[in-house]
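Propose amino acids for all 98 sites.
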């Protein structure tokens, strides 16, 4: 399990790299209901997601954690963060090939 320090470092790295974006994440979640409940299986949706959607989803998790402490820990533990990072790597690898 990740230690609190590692989670904080991950947040900082997402911010430093510019991966997190400023947008109306609450409205976006209302329009993308599948992502609202972290218990939902989002694997199929993440496998089809583009980079912008992945950035919005990760940003929503980070911002949402401010209002519901433990939310980000939950999406790490349920594998959603891993799914997002795996899909992101797949998209970046594909970009480097073309």
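Proposal:
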């Amino acid at each position: 399990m990740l230690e609190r320090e590692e989670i904080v470092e991950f947040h900082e790295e997402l911010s430093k790299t510019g991966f997190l974006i400023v947008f109306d994440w609450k409205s976006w979640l209302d329009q993308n209901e599948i992502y609202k409940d972290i218990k939902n299986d989002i694997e199929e949706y993440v496998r089809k997601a583009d980079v912008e959607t992945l950035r919005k989803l990760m940003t929503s998790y980070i911002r949402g954690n401010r209002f519901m402490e433990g939310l980000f820990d939950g999406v790490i533990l349920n594998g959603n963060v891993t799914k997002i990072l795996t899909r992101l790597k797949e998209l970046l690898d594909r970009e480097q090939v073309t």
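DSSP finds six helices and no strands in the chain. The mean pLDDT is 92.
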